[in-house]
Structures are given as C-alpha cells and as structure tokens.
Automatic annotation (TrEMBL), chain A:
This is Ras-related protein Rab-43. It is found in: Cytoplasmic vesicle, Phagosome membrane; Endomembrane system; Golgi apparatus, trans-Golgi network membrane. Keywords: Cytoplasmic vesicle, Golgi apparatus, GTP-binding, Lipoprotein, Membrane, Methylation, Nucleotide-binding, Phosphoprotein, Prenylation. Belongs to the small GTPase superfamily. Rab family. InterPro entries: P-loop_NTPase, Small_GTP-bd, Small_GTPase, Small_GTPase_Rab. The lineage of its organism: Eukaryota, Metazoa, Ecdysozoa, Arthropoda, Hexapoda. SUPFAM superfamilies: P-loop containing nucleoside triphosphate hydrolases (SSF52540). GO terms for cellular component: Golgi apparatus; phagocytic vesicle membrane. PROSITE patterns: RAB, RAS, RHO.
Automatic annotation (TrEMBL), chain B:
GO terms for cellular component: cytosol; Rab-protein geranylgeranyltransferase complex. Residues 460-472 have a biased composition (Polar residues). This is Rab proteins geranylgeranyltransferase component A. GO terms for biological process: small GTPase-mediated signal transduction. Keywords: Cytoplasm, GTPase activation. InterPro entries: FAD/NAD-bd_sf, GDP_dissociation_inhibitor, Rab_escort, RAE1_2_domI_C. Residues 113-137, 458-495, 552-597 are annotated as: Disordered.
Length: 240, 597
C-alpha cells in the first residue's frame, strides 16, 4: 500500500475528463487478473479461478488535475487457447502485455502477442511491457536486462517495468504512466471529433442507476450529431 | 498437452457464426458449462470480416481444404453410431478475383507527386494526428502493392449486414448488456435510383418536409400511407383484400404520384413487384419503427464490420466461463438412439447434453434438404462514392431488378470512417439471391454504378481525396468547392467510381433443414441469410435456446463491473439487483468459494 497516493485515486462514479480503454494480454497465469485487482481494489488474491462474470473494471486517476478514467479489460480466459476476440482489441488506447519473470515460456511468447496486437489494434496504441511476480526473485527465469533488450525488436513498447501484484510493487505506476502518456498524446493532437460519430448502445460507462429502466432509450434524432466531446477519445454517442 | 480440453459439457457449440455465438452466450450466461469450437483460426465462419491479407489467406485455404476427409475409426461403445462431420454445406463457389490497377513498378513515377496536396489546408495541429492519416500524402494513387501493404486498414465482410435501430439484435444487445463490446455507425443515407439517377431518400419527418422534389400534396399522401402502415401493420382493415396480393397493387389503388410510389416501394419497403402486400406493409412498418433512434436513417452498421458481432457474444460466453478453442476440428458426432452423446475432436471424446452446430460441420446423414436460397456476393474496392455528398457517407441502396431473371440487389457502401478501408477508398458490398454465378447475377448492377475496367498503366486518375469528401481535417472546405462545380454529372462515366479490385463469390444456402430422424439434442445454426439484418439469426438462436432450456431466461442483462461484489472489495458498487436468474447467484457463489480456498 505504500506507493498508493489516496489523493490521486478517486471514485469511479464521478465524471471524467478523459476516457481510455486499456486491455491486458499475456500468457495464462502471468498474473493479469491479479494486477488489475490490485490496482482496482488494493487486494491481492493469490488463487483465482477463472474470473467469472467480471468483464472490465473502471478506475479514475488524477493526472495534473484532470480526471483520467481507465476502462481496464481482462481476457476472460480466452488467452488460454489463444482465442482472444479481435473485438477485445478494438479501440484500445493502451495495451498491458504481461509475462511472468519466473516462467521463461511466458517471456518467449511475447512475440506472438505483439503480432496479435499489431494485427488488431491501431498503429498508435500504447504498449507497456510488464514482468510480473518480481517478488519471486529465487525463481526468476527472465533477467530484467533481457526484457530491456526486447525494446529493440518491439519499438511500440514505450515502457518496461517489473511488478509484483503480491507486494504491490509498481502496480499503480503501470496505470499512472499509461494514463499520463495517453493524456499527453491526446492533448497534443486533439482529434477533430466532427466526423467521429460512433454509436454506442447501452453504454457500460454510466452509473448503474441509469440502467434500470430499459425504456430510457435516448432518442438521438434531435441531438446535435456534431457535438464536440473533447473529453472522450472518440466522440461517441452514449445511448442508454 | 496444452490442447487437451476438459471432457464434459452441458453444451458444445461448433462454429462461431452469429447464431452459434448467441446460443453459446445464452447458455453460458445461465451457468451452463459451454465449450465453443471452431475449425478455423478466426471467429465467425461465413459471417467473418477479414483484413485484406486475411481475405487472401482465406481464399488460399479454400483451395487447399477441399478433401481433408479421412476415414475415421473411433472407439465406440455398444449401440453407438459415429457420424462424420462434413464441410459440404459451407462450400464457397465461383470465386472470381480481379485487379483493375497495376503494381508499383508499372506506375509512372512523376504522377505520384500531386499538386493537390491537402497539407496546406490542414490546420497545423491536425497534421500529426497520427501516422494513419499523414501517409496519405506520400503517394496519391493506389497500386496493388499499396493496397496489399495497407492490408490492415481493410475490414472486408463476407456477409455484410445492417441492424434496424429497433430490430431484434439492437434490443438484444441492449437488454443483455452485450452492447458494451461493440460500436456502431449510423447509416447516413438511404439512396434510391430514380429515372436513372441516384437520389437520397428522405427518411425522417423533417427530411420529408424539407424535400423539394416532393410536393405538399405528395407529402400528405405519403404521411397518410405511412401512418396506416405504422399504426396497425398488415392487420389493419385498410389492407383487407390485398394482403396476399402484391404490395404494388395496393399502392396503385392509392393514386400515389410516381415519386411517392417509388420511395415507398424501393426505399422504404424494399419491395419488388412480386412482394406481397403483407410483407410490404410489414417492411414499411419495420423501417418506420426504427427511424429516429440513432442518426438519420433506421440503420446501424457495426464498426469494423459485421464479423465483430458474433465475437461480442463469444466474449460474453467466455466472461461467464465458456471455454474457447479455435483451429479445432469437429471429426464427428457419436449418437446413441435418438440422442447425440458426444463429439470427437482432436482425439478427444467430449460429452454433452446439447450439441449446437453450424451448418458447416453437419454430418450429411442428418440433413434433410440442402436449401435453395443461395447468395451471390460482390465486393469492390473503389476510389470514390457512388453518390457524391458533402461528407463521407455510409450508404444503403436497394436496387430492384430491371428485367425478368434478375434479382434485387442490396448495395452497402462503406467509407474509411467505418474502418472498412483506408482514407480515399470505399468498399462496395453487393448481395442478391443466387440464380447463376455471383458475377453474372450482379453484372447489371455493377455496370450501372461502377466502372470496372482495367486502368491503363500510364494513365492515372485524379486522386480522389478531394473529390470524395473523405479528408478529416479541412475536408469541408474542399468538398464544398467541388460541389459547387458540377452537381449534375452524377452517373456520367467520369464520376463513376473506378473499381480497383473486385471479388465475386457464392455463399451456400442458409435454409438447410435437419432430417426428422436427427437426434433431437442436435441444434442446427444456419449460415448468413439473404435478409438485410441479423434478425433471422437472433430468432433462430432464441428458438434453439428455448428448445434446450424452456424455463430459463434468454440472455438476461449481464452485470456491469461496478455491480459485482468481489470479496474484500474496498468500495463495492451498488448491489446488483436487476437479475433474478439462479445461474448468476450460483456463479457468484462459486466465485466466492474459489476465493476462500
């Protein structure tokens, strides 16, 4: 808990200035779910079954006074037979690619994961490479220097870090560095939102109380289609 | 042994097409143990969307996959019978692929430099927007090499389909909360071809009244007619005596002017002269019902293509514990009496209560009829829109047959904003019922709207970005310029879209039927059908689910992340109440139990 700065973590139910989709990938058992859990709720749960029913989690962090909302997606176990759906990667702003420093094969499959990421994400997706379980120094099979060398072959990796979800080493920092870099990039090239009219049906990003009544479908006919939601990575309609 | 699967399931689903995926999600959602297999390495089967490279690979594989059937001698118990799976009901026929442009080395070098660069018009801030947009400045025209190089920016559908804004699928996506996995773009215009020219059909009430080609009296006529379709549908006494006669006969009694009749027939009801009044009225009702929900027209298009949607249901299935395995072949099914007991796949015997199987994997022994409604498809990469507009449009055009022996063709034109293709290009999808080969069936429509002749090597057409309305920044000023010049030569040969690449193919029939003697726990899922939307698949999935689990809810709303209470959560979201299925509680209990271990 030591690195956790309560001032920079705010409840996910407030508004936000930026919204980014982050997806986790990496071999089975690398600790993806633990990393998300640790960041999201501060808990470390050693034994996970398949995380049933949990889809993605939301967490808002404060960067330079702006609320950056991260929508963090887990693989739903589909990495096991390498059957992650393309739609999982769609419109992702950031990818956290996880390997287990105590399992060399998980490091060796990075190439395959990167191929998949290249195939399905946009070319400007932000990729962060995470070597998890660095608390298990005795069982280490992948040196940090090896991971650093990977960068030469994988230019899209913008940051490499070793973490321990168990001891909360660098967990928050993964998400903070992703959030601040994404925010920086977004500010630098404000996307012209006029043509970006994307319809989302029943958005998962609003308060549950808004959902109860299915009939609250917002009729978009009269709304201005070209409103500029600067807060959003892609100006999209949130239709409940 | 990574490929070894657990061997006992409630439901095994083979094939990741639309119907299969919906059933898989529904079964998993109520707590059934689901295994979902596909022999391909991609999702969707005949519903898939590919990038350009993926599509080429798919065609390659079709050529080589012809005869993989080996004789299979499984170990069987007494009374069991083995039926070998076959891919004969998912056969693609008459593939014709053509290029109309050249390779890089054949292009004259000078032409790559074009005077009409947009850089001067783009605000400086937008220039670095991203790599994707800036590189359109490098070379201004398209070569085979360039299209191949940019393969990732294409999303090409085998079976493109739209969603009615109030159709079954939209309602299901919202009610099940699966909508969060997908994004859509509203079809921005419905076009129709009137007197040889393409015009935009006024869709909303505002559009109708703003339209200058229709007189006030015609507007009244139209509104009256639409209201009577809308209010009671085909059961209204208004349609007594006409229901089973052609829709056009009924319309003729209404003394409509030709324009109004044209709009109703060809754009709203999408009817031919043979369409019955009942169908015509129902189509009209469906169309009107879906108006005004999202965007200007009743239709939505899934971003990245139709092939995304089955995957959304697969994701839900996985989230609730479904096991996924692609590149996994179904060898056959083991039956005993009137039940299917297991499947054999990759040397494993996997037992099941229900087998849900796509038509591409059926053993021929249990098929009664092979269906008649085969599909002809044409896919075109073009250099501009079939109909000029101020902005990039997503267009639906229904084109009824010109003469006997032709079939009505549905045309969907997608631009870069849907991620179907890179900036400066369009993808045109044509679909109709098969009578001959795809190329023959579609020829009359291709000729009408597209220029499908080889471009001569040394002639380069004017680059299209500025003419087509596609550039993102500064595009508006450009397109206005163009528009003021010459709005009239819509279909003249100069402005017709040039086809850069085309592909014709025939998809199999979707109306295959199982024989009476087929085991009753085998459920058949059809391939893509001829309809414009997905409702056939949704309804088929509902029926299958109901026959498997008559007392269970079909895809009740999945909770949002905030609503799931994980043990020890710091700030749990509000408790999830909207769901009363037992499956859900059970799952949460399981999860807790697992954590307590």
């Amino acid at each position: 808990m030591s690195t956790r700065d309560p001032d920079n973590l705010i409840s996910s139910e407030e508004g936000f200035d930026y919204l980014f989709k982050i997806v986790l990938v990496g071999d089975c058992g690398a600790g993806k779910t633990c990393i998300v859990q640790k960041f999201h709720s501060g808990n470390f749960v050693q034994r996970h079954g398949n995380t049933i029913g949990v889809d993605f989690s939301m967490k808002t962090v404060l960067i330079d006074g702006k609320r950056v909302k991260l929508q963090i997606w887990d693989t739903a176990g589909q990495e096991r037979f390498r059957t992650i759906t393309q739609s999982y990667y769609r419109s992702a702003n950031g990818v956290i690619l996880v390997y287990d420093i105590t399992k060399r094969p998980s490091f060796l499959s990075l190439q395959k994961w990167v191929d998949e990421i290249r195939k399905y994400t946009t070319s400007h997706v932000l990729l962060i490479l995470v070597g998890n379980k660095c608390d298990l120094e005795d069982a280490r099979e992948v040196k940090k220097s090896e991971a650093d060398m990977v960068r030469e072959y994988l230019p899209e990796v913008f940051h490499i870090v070793e973490t321990s979800a168990k001891e909360n080493t660098n967990i928050d920092s993964i998400f903070f560095s992703l959030a601040s870099e994404l925010k920086r990039r977004q500010e630098n090239h404000q996307i012209n939102a006029e043509d970006e009219v994307i319809v989302k049906l029943g958005s998962g990003q609003t308060l549950p109380s808004n959902y109860r009544n299915e009939n609250q479908v917002i009729n978009l006919e009269d709304s201005n289609h070209e409103r500029n939601l600067s807060s959003c990575s892609s100006c999209s309609f949130k239709v409940l | 042994m990574e490929d070894d699967l657990p061997t006992e399931y409630d439901v095994i689903v083979v094939g990741t097409g639309m119907t299969e995926s919906i059933v898989a999600a529904a079964a998993s959602r109520i707590g059934k143990k689901v295994l979902h297999l596909d022999s391909n390495e991609y999702y969707g089967g005949l519903w898939a969307t590919f990038n350009f490279d993926g599509l080429q690979k798919w065609m390659e594989d079709l050529k080589s996959a012809a005869s993989e059937n080996k004789d299979f001698k499984p170990d069987l118990q007494d009374g069991e019978q083995f039926l070998q799976a076959s891919n004969q009901y998912s056969t693609i026929e008459n593939i014709v692929e053509d290029w109309f442009i050249s390779n890089d080395e054949d292009l004259p070098a000078v032409l790559a430099k074009n005077t009409q660069t947009e850089s001067s018009e783009e605000p400086s801030g937008a220039e670095k927007v991203d790599d994707d947009k800036s590189d359109k400045k490098d070379t201004k025209h398209w070569s085979i090499d360039r299209i191949k190089k940019e393969y990732r920016r294409f999303n090409i559908d085998l079976a493109p389909k739209l969603l009615f804004a109030r159709g079954e699928l939209v309602e299901l996506l919202i009610s099940s909360n699966i909508a969060r996995y997908a994004e859509f773009r509203a079809v921005s215009r419905v076009a129709t071809c009137m007197n040889g020219k393409l015009t935009q059909v006024p869709c909303s009430r505002a559009d109708v009244f703003a339209n200058k080609t229709v007189s006030v009296i015609e507007k009244r006529m139209l509104m009256q007619l639409l209201t009577s379709c809308m209010d009671q549908g085909a059961d209204s006494p208004e349609f007594d005596g006409y229901r089973d006669k052609p829709f056009v006969e009924y319309l003729n009694t209404k003394k409509l002017t030709p324009i109004v009749k044209h709009y109703v027939m060809q754009a709203i009801a999408m009817a031919t002269d043979k369409t019955s009044c009942r169908d015509g009225v129902n189509n009209t009702k469906h169309f009107l019902n879906s108006l005004g929900r999202y965007g200007n027209t009743p239709f939505l298009w899934p971003m990245y293509g139709s092939g995304e949607l089955p995957q959304c249901f697969c994701r839900l299935c996985a989230v609730f514990g479904g096991v996924y395995c692609l590149k996994r072949h179904l060898d056959g099914v083991v039956t005993s009496g009137d039940k299917c007991k297991a499947i054999l796949s990759g040397k494993q015997r996997l037992t099941l209560e229900h087998l849900v199987v796509g038509q591409g994997h059926l053993p021929p022994e249990i098929v009664a009829s092979t269906g008649e409604n085969k599909i002809s498809r044409g896919i075109f990469i073009t250099d501009r829109s079939i109909m000029k507009g101020e902005k990039e449009n997503l267009t639906l055009l229904y084109y009824p047959p010109e003469e006997a022996g032709q079939e009505a063709v549905t045309i969907i034109e997608l631009g870069p904003l849907t991620n179907a293709c890179p900036q400066g290009l369009f993808i045109v999808h044509m679909t109709c019922k098969r009578t001959k080969t795809a190329k023959e069936d579609l020829a009359y429509v291709v000729k009408k709207f597209l220029k499908a002749e080889k471009l001569e090597k040394n002639v380069s057409r004017t680059p299209t970005d500025s003419q087509t309305q596609t550039s993102i920044a500064g595009g508006e000023s450009v397109s206005k310029d163009i528009e003021s010049k010459n709005p009239d030569d819509e279909n003249s040969n100069n402005t017709m879209p040039q086809v850069l690449w085309s592909l014709y193919l025939n998809l199999p029939a979707s109306d295959i039927k199982l024989s009476e003697s087929a085991p009753n726990n085998i459920h058949l899922c059809s391939g893509p059908d001829l309809n414009l939307d997905f409702d056939f698949a949704v309804n088929q999935a509902k029926e299958i689910f109901k026959s498997m689990y008559p007392d269970e809810d079909f895809l009740p709303r999945a909770p949002d992340p905030e609503e799931i209470i994980l043990e020890g959560e710091e700030a749990p979201g509000p408790k999830f109440e909207g769901d009363n299925s037992n499956g859900e509680n059970e799952k949460q209990d399981n999860e807790k139990a697992e954590k307590e271990e």
